[in-house]
Design goal:
Layout (H helix, E strand, L loop, with lengths): L2 H12 L3 H9 L3 H17 L4 E7 L7 H7 E8 L2 H17 L9 E5 L12 E7 L8 H11 E12 L12 H29 L3 H13 L4 H9 L2 E9 L4 E8 L2
Parallel strand pairs: 1-2, 1-4, 2-3, 4-5
Antiparallel strand pairs: 5-7, 6-7
Helix pairs in contact: 1-8, 7-8
Length: 257
């Protein structure tokens, strides 16, 4: 089975319980990481930048869509899974129903598609956001090249993704601090490979899908390794924020065109 087919099948299966189980296995901390991402986007606006066209790539169940719709004139949401997109649409419709403002929905468009072949013209987006989706690209380089192609000259891309805690040991010179980092790495691996599958088994019968998600997080390149890959594909990482000791990274990327 190709990675593309595997990813489609997995996210189609877990769509209905995806948000709930994410909250459980991350103890809700993932919302703090998303909040930091959104604060960076908002800060960029206060500096005089504006987002005419924004893309939430690998939008999933649309957790970020409402906040992104507040800072962009036109918002586009793309995901490879129709089941995930259906939930994202329902989520957004409910939010705008609750605040009695349906007009904004006219400026939000949904696309079923893949990151490696984006259905948008060159230099179209001022802002591209990928939250926990890059590691699921079936062709990482092609997906990053598509982000580069679709990003405008002064555009900005934010990538939020899991990382490897061991890579932050270089920040610490004292042996005790380095020891703590190595201990944190071991705890990270133990949690993802052993504890998380047990938690998932309690709430979902589809443990195989979450086994893929934990495996992909453990094997994905991070920090300087991923920054190098970004650069090779035209995306220059101006800021790399390690959160929770390198458990998650937020990459801020610009381009030269």
């Amino acid at each position: 089975m190709s990675k593309k087919t595997e990813v489609i099948n997995i996210f189609s299966k877990v769509a209905n319980k995806y948000d709930f189980i994410n909250n459980v296995i991350s103890f809700g901390v993932h919302k703090l990481w998303e909040k930091k991402l959104l604060s960076k986007i908002s800060l960029n606006i206060t500096k005089g930048n504006s987002y005419q066209n924004a893309l939430d790539l690998c939008t999933g169940t649309g957790a970020l869509l409402y906040k992104l719709s507040l800072v962009s004139k036109n918002l586009y949401a793309l995901d490879i899974s129709n089941e995930m997109l259906d939930i994202a649409k329902k989520r957004l419709n409910k939010i705008y129903d609750d605040i009695n403002d349906k007009n904004k929905l006219e400026n939000i468009k949904f696309y079923q598609g893949e990151a490696e072949n984006l259905p948008f013209k060159d230099n179209f987006f001022d802002l591209i956001v990928v939250s926990y989706g890059v590691r699921n690209f079936y062709d990482l380089n092609k997906g990053l090249q598509e982000i580069y192609r679709c990003l405008s000259k002064n555009g900005i891309a934010y990538i939020l993704e899991f990382g490897k805690p061991i890579l932050v040991t270089k920040l610490y010179k004292k042996s005790f601090s380095r020891y703590l980092c190595k201990l944190w790495q071991k705890l990270f691996i133990f949690y993802f490979s052993k504890i998380m599958p047990l938690i998932v088994r309690i709430f979902s019968k589809d443990t195989n899908s979450y086994r893929y998600l934990s495996k992909s997080a453990l094997s994905f390149p991070s920090d300087e390794e991923f920054v190098k890959i970004l650069s090779q594909n035209g995306l220059h990482c101006s800021k790399c924020d390690a959160m929770l000791g390198g458990f998650v990274y937020l990459y801020t990327c610009n381009i030269d065109k």
